[in-house]
Design brief:
19 helices, 6-stranded mixed β-sheet, 8% strand
């Protein structure tokens, strides 16, 4: 639905990057990337090389297929790992499909979605590893695919498998644990290779781009601790918090946006399953670690929080099932301390209907004003868009931006540079000749201008909205003069 409504434009912030990436026609830039999360490019780059078409159209077809992989994975995990009926498992896929968190992942995080899809199938076979040759071989296959798909999915699989092994040693037999580790060995080898090349990276050998960076990310630890962040000092294109209270407001408001409506059903529907417990526990640590230990917490807390939709879906569906089969009585959580919480059949229906309606509006409604549609708060738009009908730009401005970049491309020469704010950075790589200099920055015009001047560029171009639409919090400074307009997008020249 969102892909059809947005046609012919792409939706998703990272989607523009994926278009650049598959447009290079290269899967691995150097040998060490065999141990990286390359599988999405391994699937899409050959298609791009074959059809030689618009990479955005390939991605527009890929997005529903990836989302379908995940909904099928929800169904299969429910059937095989949880022993649910076909009807209950199918209902779980439907509930998952309309959750804002699931749709937000599908909006832009294609590699993450590919990894999570394979993760669902890998975990579905985990309980039967060592008991069935077929299940064991499928687990090996899907676990390796997870490792080649995305880092976060790899970490989830690693932690869940280790948790299951530890549980098996304590509660069952060491032989079973050894069998699980044996069949996990191929994926574990890839995972350890990824960790090694994160700690000791090989120099970048990708396509030569004339890009200068006038932007310095801070707060991220390096080496083996690169997955951790100091949120009290972080500054990057997504995360920046002036105080702990600001950080807390972002974390709490995003959780409320994503799960406030279904949380009562999660609490009522919670059941003891070691796969889901380890899975949920890791994601809760990743999502809320930023407010518990903000100086050293898992990076990208918002992504960990979004992924909670996967285990939460099974708890939500189980909660609805318990309420539905309780007749006219209300259902309480299994925890004694939450006995005050009661869910009736009418309340359960209302919660799931309202939640699904919000998901529908999230997919279909256009931006109403600025960055705000029908979903979201000022503290959440950096992590979840207020409508899926956008990318780094409002869809109505995409054609204007492309035309502006093409015009700039014809004006530039060896003494000129293009100042690319984050929103237009990958667009500029797509539509400017790779001999033209690009200066990448976030919101510091002074550093961008200084960087370009230091490298000898005396003609500086910049494109931005000619009226303030409320995005990104910046406007063209007084030092820039307007050269040419393309509807709401204008080309500016730095006049000093």
């Amino acid at each position: 639905m969102p892909e059809l409504l947005s046609y012919p434009h792409a939706i998703g912030f990272d989607t523009v990057y994926y278009a650049c990436r598959i447009g290079t026609g290269v899967v691995w830039y150097n040998w060490s990337q065999v141990f990286s999360s390359w599988l999405l490019y391994g699937l899409l780059v050959p298609v791009q090389n074959l059809v030689q078409g618009d990479p955005f159209m390939i991605l527009k077809l890929a997005a529903p297929l990836l989302f379908g992989l995940n909904t099928c994975g929800i169904y299969y995990f429910a059937r095989r790992a949880l022993n649910w009926t076909e009807r209950k498992a199918l209902f779980g896929s439907l509930v998952f499909s309309f959750q804002i968190a699931a749709l937000a992942i599908s909006w832009e995080f294609f590699r993450n979605m590919l990894g999570l899809g394979f993760l669902l199938f890998a975990l579905a076979f985990l309980e039967d590893v060592g008991k069935s040759v077929r299940a064991s071989l499928f687990f090996v296959l899907f676990s390796v695919l997870v490792m080649f798909s995305h880092e976060f999915a790899s970490i989830i699989l690693f932690i869940v498998v280790l948790g299951v092994v530890a549980f098996t040693v304590v509660k069952e037999t060491k032989l079973t644990a050894i069998r699980v580790l044996g069949f996990f060995a191929p994926a574990l080898a890839v995972f350890l290779g990824q960790v090694y090349f994160v700690a000791f990276p090989v120099a970048y050998t990708g396509p030569a781009l004339n890009v200068l960076t006038a932007y310095q990310a801070t707060g991220h630890y390096g080496g083996v601790f690169s997955l951790f962040t100091n949120y009290l000092g972080v500054f990057d294109t997504v995360q920046s918090y002036s105080s702990y209270l600001v950080l807390f407001s972002h974390v709490s408001s995003l959780f409320a946006l994503l799960f406030a409506l279904v949380l009562p059903l999660v609490l009522v529907g919670f059941f003891r399953n070691k796969l889901l417990v380890f899975w949920s526990g890791l994601l809760l640590v990743g999502g809320f670690g930023a407010v518990v230990v903000p100086w050293f917490a898992p990076d990208m807390w918002s992504r960990w929080m979004l992924m909670l939709v996967y285990p939460f879906t099974f708890y939500v569906v189980n909660g609805i099932s318990k309420v539905w089969h309780a007749g006219g009585s209300s259902v309480r959580p299994i925890w004694t301390r939450l006995n005050w919480l009661k869910i009736s059949k009418r309340a359960a229906k209302s919660l799931i209907v309202v939640s699904s309606c919000l998901g529908f509006l999230f997919m279909a409604c256009p931006m109403l004003y600025g960055r705000f549609g029908v979903v979201g708060l000022p503290t959440t738009v950096n992590y979840v868009p207020s409508s899926m009908q956008s990318n780094t730009l409002p869809l109505i401005d995409v054609d204007s931006a492309v035309n502006a970049l093409k015009w700039v491309n014809n004006q530039m020469n060896s003494s000129s540079a293009f100042l690319a704010q984050d929103a237009f950075y990958y667009w500029s790589i797509l539509y400017l000749n790779n001999q033209h200099a690009i200066v990448f920055f976030k919101n510091d015009f002074h550093t961008a201008i200084t960087t370009a001047s230091a490298h000898g560029f005396d003609t500086l171009y910049f494109i931005w909205w000619n009226t303030d639409i409320g995005w990104y919090g910046i406007t063209a400074p007084s030092g820039f003069v307007q050269l040419k307009s393309f509807d709401r997008i204008s080309v500016y020249l730095y006049a000093g």
